[in-house]
Amino acid sequence: MRILLFGKKFDHYYDTVFCDIVAELLKNGADISIFESFEADIKHLLPAEKSLKTVSSGADINADIILSFGGDGTLLDTVPLVGDSGIPVMGINTGHLGFLSATSAEDALDTIDEITRGRFSIQKRAMIRLESPDNVFGNINYGLNEIAVQRRDTGSLITITVSVDDTQLATYRGDGLIVATATGSTAYSLSAGGPIVTPETNSFIITPIAAHNLTLRPVVIPDDSIVSIHVESRQNAFAISLDSRITNIDAPQKLVIRRNDFDFNMAVPENSHFFDTIRKKLLWGEDVRTR
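Given the sequence above, the corresponding structure tokens read:
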């Protein structure tokens, strides 16, 4: 089993867990490589007796699975690296909530033996793609969570007119708008008041950010829809983000959003379920007074 370790520097609390995970992988005969920038952050934790191969770009990846150590943002950073290769990614949470992480760092050691034997499930997660005249994100114009249009650092609202499959939906005036995938429903969209949608429902969620008209509510549509957005701003510019990447763009502007041509392969332990994740992360059904 060829395994690539990817991540960012984490809290010292996880040092022992990380060392135990690497030791168990080596014990089980895994062929381990590590992303170059990650190695620089945690080099002191790597086994001195075993030199790991380093990888510096997505084109150099030769792995059966990627283990991402960090939070959701770290896992999102693997999306442009794997591209359309289909290499599955399993998140090991050393961050905060970690909706995208399949396992906590404390529980990860229990799944290592299963991973090295290929005993894990792969969930195909639909991604979202942005088409803009300026091609602002270049060839990596796709993401796993969401596309968000927002006003810049100014008090002026922006105006966003949205059409779905050439039929006008609404005109939003406020701080911005989020178009999220089902996977992204537990990210920025959720913080802005959007619904939680199970990953396999093949949906987009259109969620306004602080809309001036309080009757405008989040809308769920099929993700085979084509969403057209026309943005206007008094400041003649606005911000647009694609997962963790963000840039400024001139207004007025017309953007087209659709489902990406290929999916993201999320690796999860066998028999895991999305409901288990949100129940644990959001403490559903638990008496918080006892925590």
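The mean pLDDT is 91. Try to locate this feature in the token string yourself.
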